[in-house]
Every structure is written in structure tokens, then in C-alpha cells.
Amino acid sequence: MVRHFMLAATYLKLLGKFEQGVGKLKGDLASSIGVGYETGGGWHDNALFESSLMDQKVLAHNLAELSELLNRPIFIDDLEIDGDTVSIGTEIVIERTNGEGAKQEHYLVLGPADARVRDDVLPYTSPLFKAIMGKRAGDQVAAEFPGGMATVRIISVRPLADLRAP
Length: 166
What we know:
two-stranded parallel ribbon, 7 strands, 39% helix, elongated
């Protein structure tokens, strides 16, 4: 069974989304399916019924994904992070250089679940993280990006100051 690294705050947010989804599945969506069914006609010519069933499938898929993420989490908040090397639970600044020039980027290295609720997260499952994992400030590596290869220089690495902050 896969365990997912995430912040405790992320777990609580995802749990709230899961509970909202279950409520919608049991409430509004179930009611909409019932109304669509009662209006009659075959499923292929009953837009409300067909649309409600499609919404149910999408919501059920999303709930299954959330359920997997919420199952057996490892809270990054509880880990001891040294902060000298790029690892889960660090805040990094990198400089990416490619044919278009250099660009500084700031990331929090967290889990894929955290990336669902924050924009500044570099998930530990990403190719960039795998290229810079274990590197220190000043180190430089070549990394593959959607636009092609780039040189990545680690400018700074430090442990996250307060992992509980949203």
C-alpha cells in the first residue's frame, strides 16, 4: 500500500473536500438523478438524467482519488528535516537557465497532495525534484523540462520555517 507524504494542514483540507463530495453525492446529485429518472424517456434522450449520471461518475472518480491520498498519510510536519540538502520539507530557490535566459524560481518541496492545494509546491514525485534531490546550495545539474533541457543551479535550501502554515 502506498503512503503519501503531506502536510497535516493539507490532509485536513483534502478531508474537508472529501466530506463535501460525499455530501453532494448523497444529496444534490442523488436528487438530480432521481428527478431525471422520473421525468421519463430513455437514458439517451433524457439530458438531465444523462448529465446527472456523468456528474456522478466524475465525482466518484474524484472521491476515489482523494480517498487514496487520505489513506495512511505520513505527515511531513513530523519529519526531522536537516535543510542542508534538497529533500521533502525544504524550501528552495533555483535558477533555471535555458535558451531563453535565466529565471529564478521558489518552491516548497512537499507531496503531490500538497500540490493539489498550493501553487508553490514542487512535488517529490516530479522529474525536477528527482534531478536535484540531495543537492546543496551552489550545486548545478541538467534537468529535463517540458520545453527541453535546462541547467538548474541551487541558490538556497532551507528547512520550512513553519510546516503547519497553509
